[in-house]
Amino acid sequence: MRLLAFCEAPADFLTASTLLDRVLQDEGPLWVSDLLRSHPESIREWTNDERGKSFFDIHKLEAYRRDLGNVRFMPGHFDGKPGAAGAQAARNAFTIAREIGKRAGP
Questions:
Q1: Is 67 exposed, middle or buried (0-12, 13-18, 19+ CB in 10 A)?
Q2: CA angle centred on 38, ends 33 and 42, rounded to 5°
Q3: 68 and 17 in contact (C-beta within 8 Å)?
Q4: Domain containing residue 32
Q5: Alpha carbons 99 and 88: distance in angstroms, whole number
Q6: How many domains does the structure of the chain reveal?
Q7: Within its chain, how far is the Cα of 50 from the centroid?
Q8: Does residue 51 contact residue 71 with C-beta atoms inside 8 Å?
Q9: Using one digit for the tens of pLDDT, what is the confidence trace for 33-82?
């Protein structure tokens, strides 16, 4: 499984990735837990940003958009109303993740 994370700081990524591994170990099938301990890359792979970070910096959405060839961000309204704080950033992050997924293939 290929994953990417949008975070504010390296500590946030460490927390998120540790929690994900713990959930996979505790709630997944036994074979997932076994492989995660010995060969985690065979279960999950984190997608780095183009600058070599292990996560995508939520503060640099505009730079990622440009790097991807000016991916189109959707307007900042949801169901005709302005979004709550952070809603537009989350929507833009999902747009970037979708574009990266399309380019990476299956």
A1: middle
A2: 75
A3: no
A4: 2-104
A5: 17
A6: 1
A7: 13
A8: no
A9: 899 889 988 999 999 998 889 999 999 999 999 999 988 887 777 778 87
